[in-house]
Amino acid sequence: MNERETLIDLCSRLGAPAAQAGLMADQLLKRCAQLAAERGWSRERAMEHLLTVLIKGRKGETVPGFEGGPPPTGGAPTA
Questions:
Q1: Are 12 and 18 in contact (CB under 8 A)?
Q2: What three-state secondary structure class fits 71?
Q3: How far is CA 45 from CA 33, 51, 76, in A?
């Protein structure tokens, strides 16, 4: 089983329909490459980070840096 197939299986086990699991796997692979390039991380470190965000998000938890808050309401965005 290759990396994409493994990610599809994981996303499916987390409840994504088959077509959505494939799209999710593709996005995870794409973002993994971006993080590795942007932050100088290994692919393994980047994927570990993304999977942590995915799993915690599935549980309704957040990871540091993703706390956020409700989106601003009304008016145009400010620059």
A1: yes
A2: coil
A3: 11, 10, 38
Asked whether 8 and 21 are in contact (CB, 8 A), the reply is yes
SS (H, E, C) 21-51: HHHHHHHHHHHHHHHHHHHCCCHHHHHHHHH
Identify which of 18, 11, 22, 8 has the alpha carbon closest to the alpha carbon of residue 58. Answer: 11
Q: Where are the domains of the chain?
A: 3-58
**pLDDT tens series, the chain, 79 aa:** 999 999 999 999 999 999 999 999 999 999 999 999 999 999 999 999 999 999 998 898 888 877 666 655 655 555 4
7, 33 contact by CB (below 8 A): no
pLDDT of amino acid 8: 97
